[in-house]
DNA sequence: GAGCACTGC
């Protein structure tokens, strides 16, 4: 798929259809809604009815005894329920009270995100009248509060539970595992499902609860049904069962655009204004796909608000607020502030508001119907960010962001027939991402044949092959696909992508572990350079030059960190140099962790004291699969895949004379294929450090 | 001279 240039015209679009004749009668039934210029909505009164009918097929949740009864009878319970049903907070308490966490075992509840694990633990501890860390605890990376002897309910991140299997392969410290928010289908939740299926066969006394907000429960139930189909014909021998939990959310009215909308940013803004003029109290949440769209919508809304206050004195003020991941923390907090009396908040957000954050007081939701998604292409070894239609599950989730405190209303900027054509679920992440880290994790957990591993949704074979190839080139796997010792085993223990862990583990050999831990840490945090507007932007660029070196971006980052430490890690230094203090502090933390891990492998902290060559060779030992060479056409091409790529304009090497060979840390397919975080490399180093990978490829370069 | 959704170990 070709990239998009950022203008909405070139984006892939839903094929909107004109309403057919059949729909004409339906259209007449619509309540009297004035056309909002191009966008008109119809109310679909059948929505809630059809959802109820679906639910009738499933057993209905009654009380705690019902759950306990089912868990005694079945090994796996698939719990379907909307958010707000209290399953995440209540069910573990039921089980703890009923004595399921006895003999020093625990009930483990996984979450995809760190904040969820910690905040749920403290909430449940409150509800149980316990001290956090005693009966109820949590564990996330860098932070844990639980007692191995007294804790009965432990909330933890998915990734951490996988790591616990390294020391406790059958998870014997748990009597019940509850995987929560499984409908999000993160790589980790899919890996956990595959691994837990194996564990359940070996530990008949382990109970599993899979908790999901959507209706793909049957598929999961079948995956965990371990009944031997040959010896047992009766479904009464099933080992898994579905239970539906009713939610407590308010009804949500669904409106669809009658006609396809030509420009969903403009139409979202029009819809906001229409709601503001005709509808009652309540804040508005708008879903768009990216930062640029959000900023454009905010600008348009500000213009409209200006016009409003100029022409007619509106009783209610409109307060547009942007929300996306790279927004400074201070601005992000504004969306959580209480809406002033007599005002209406409009939060224009990316997908961050679909699951990661919850804003209270939202009544109206406007959904553009698209999402930006990362997609790994094993042919080119590139990641792309593509705008694709959302799934039905996403549409429901977005709609549900309103109606949490009062009846809600959602405006979908697409006709209803388009909704019907959406996929029920988005493809799980494991089917569309780089799997090299996941494969390494599975190998160290004893999964020798990755291709035959029972994934709930198998990833494309090519993605697995591509991951195995890179791991072999890095020396983590041997010819037969086994983990090498000690390099491969150690790499699997690092919570980092394989290129990074390889670089760190060989840094001792180059005598530069001090510098390499810094570089790895700086690459882990988000961009430390602040991007101010206007005059300040020019000053920021000049200041940045102090740190820049012709060896590339990684050494530049090293300079930034070294100066930061020399200054005494002060906020003042950061604001003077247009650097992000919080991110540098986080890099500092990460470096400490990496130094600690290296010490465990008896790799001492050493500095090569200003000699750059060992550092650059060490970088090359990890990142050689990401080499590009200068083609005679004047453009860079990748060694793997021979793709034409462009250094990103933020790179220090962008404006400098082009070196013959470069290494990149990141490649992304946008309007063009950009490579970022670059380091100059000598071709003879590549041949020396990775001859098997490199030699056969050098002939056709010149 | 670009501009990239979101997590996590």
Automatic annotation (TrEMBL):
Occurrences of domain Helicase C-terminal (ranges): 267-446
Keywords, sorted A to Z: ATP-binding, Hydrolase, Nucleotide-binding
InterPro entries, sorted: AAA_22, DEAD-box_helicase_OB_fold, DNA/RNA_helicase_DEAH_CS, HA2_WH, Helicase-assoc_dom, Helicase_ATP-bd, Helicase_C-like, P-loop_NTPase
Pfam families the record matches: AAA_22, HA2_C, Helicase_C, OB_NTP_bind, WHD_HA2
Top EC category: hydrolase
PROSITE patterns, sorted: DEAH_ATP_HELICASE, HELICASE_ATP_BIND_1, HELICASE_CTER
Stretches assigned to coiled coil: none
Domain Helicase ATP-binding: 68-233
Ranges for region Disordered: 1-31
Keyword Hydrolase: yes
Assigned EC number: 3.6.4.13
The organism's place on the tree of life at top rank: Eukaryota
Name under which the protein is recorded: RNA helicase
Organism: Orchesella dallaii
């Amino acid at each position: 798929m070709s990239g998009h240039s950022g203008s909405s015209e070139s984006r892939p679009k839903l094929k909107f259809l004109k309403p057919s004749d059949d729909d004409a009668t339906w259209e007449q039934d619509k309540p009297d809604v004035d056309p909002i210029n191009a966008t008109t909505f119809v109310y679909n009164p059948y929505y809630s009815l059809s959802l109820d009918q679906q639910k009738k097929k499933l057993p209905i949740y009654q009380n705690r005894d019902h759950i306990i009864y089912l868990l005694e009878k079945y090994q796996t319970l698939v719990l379907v329920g909307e958010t707000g049903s209290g399953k995440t907070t209540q069910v573990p308490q039921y089980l703890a009270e009923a004595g399921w966490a006895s003999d020093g075992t625990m009930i483990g509840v996984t979450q995809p995100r760190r904040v969820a694990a910690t905040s749920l633990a403290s909430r449940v501890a409150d509800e149980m009248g316990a001290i956090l860390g005693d009966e109820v605890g949590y564990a996330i990376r860098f932070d844990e509060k639980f007692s191995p002897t007294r804790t009965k309910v432990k909330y933890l991140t998915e990734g951490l539970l996988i790591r616990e299997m390294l020391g406790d392969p059958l998870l014997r410290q748990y009597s019940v595992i509850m995987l929560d928010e499984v409908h999000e289908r993160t790589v980790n939740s899919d890996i956990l499902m595959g691994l837990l299926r194996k564990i359940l066969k070996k530990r008949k006394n382990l109970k599993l609860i899979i908790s999901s907000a959507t209706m793909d429960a049957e598929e999961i139930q079948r995956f965990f049904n371990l009944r031997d189909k040959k010896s047992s014909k009766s479904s009464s021998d099933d080992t898994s069962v579905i239970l539906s939990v009713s939610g407590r959310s308010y009804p949500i009215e669904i409106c669809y655009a009658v006609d396809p909308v030509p420009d969903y940013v403009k139409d979202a803004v029009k819809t906001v204004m229409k709601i503001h003029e005709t509808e009652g109290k309540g804040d508005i949440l708008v879903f768009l796909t990216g930062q640029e769209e959000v900023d454009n919508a905010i600008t348009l809304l500000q213009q409209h608000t200006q016009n409003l206050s100029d022409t007619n004195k509106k009783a209610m003020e409109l307060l547009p607020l942007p929300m996306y991941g790279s927004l400074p923390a201070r601005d992000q907090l504004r969306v959580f502030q209480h809406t002033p009396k007599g005002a209406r908040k409009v939060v224009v957000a990316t997908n961050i508001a679909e699951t990661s954050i919850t804003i209270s007081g939202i009544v109206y939701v406007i959904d553009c119907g698209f999402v930006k998604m990362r997609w790994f292409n094993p042919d080119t070894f590139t990641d792309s960010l593509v705008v694709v239609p959302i799934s039905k599950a996403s549409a429901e989730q977005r709609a549900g962001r309103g109606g949490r405190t009062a009846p809600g209303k959602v405006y979908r900027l697409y006709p209803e027939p388009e909704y019907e054509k959406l996929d029920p679920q988005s493809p799980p992440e494991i089917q569309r991402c780089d799997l090299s880290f996941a494969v390494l994790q599975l190998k160290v957990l004893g999964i020798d044949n990755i291709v035959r591993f029972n994934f709930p949704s198998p990833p494309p074979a090519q993605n697995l092959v591509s991951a195995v190839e890179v791991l072999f080139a890095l020396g983590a796997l041997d010819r037969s696909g086994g983990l090498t010792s000690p390099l491969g085993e150690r790499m699997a223990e690092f919570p980092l992508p394989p290129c990074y862990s390889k670089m760190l583990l060989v840094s001792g050999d180059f005598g530069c572990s001090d510098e390499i831990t810094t570089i790895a840490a700086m690459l882990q945090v988000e961009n430390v350079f602040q991007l101010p507007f206007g005059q300040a932007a020019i000053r920021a660029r000049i200041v940045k030059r102090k740190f820049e070196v012709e060896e590339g971006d990684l050494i530049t980052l090293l300079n930034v960190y070294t100066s930061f430490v020399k200054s005494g890690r002060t906020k003042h230094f950061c604001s003077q140099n247009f650097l992000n203090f919080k991110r540098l502090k986080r890099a500092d933390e990460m470096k400490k962790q990496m130094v600690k891990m290296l010490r465990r492998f008896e790799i001492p902290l050493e500095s090569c004291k200003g000699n750059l060559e060992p550092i650059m060779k060490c970088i090359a030992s990890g990142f050689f699969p990401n080499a590009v060479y200068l083609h005679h056409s004047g453009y860079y091409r990748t060694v793997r895949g021979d793709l034409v790529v462009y250094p990103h304009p933020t790179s220090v090497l962008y404006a400098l004379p082009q070196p013959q060979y470069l290494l990149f840390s990141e490649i992304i397919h946008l309007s063009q294929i950009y490579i970022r975080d670059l380091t100059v490399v000598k071709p003879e180093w590549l041949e020396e450090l990775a001859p098997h990978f490199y030699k056969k490829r050098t002939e056709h370069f010149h």
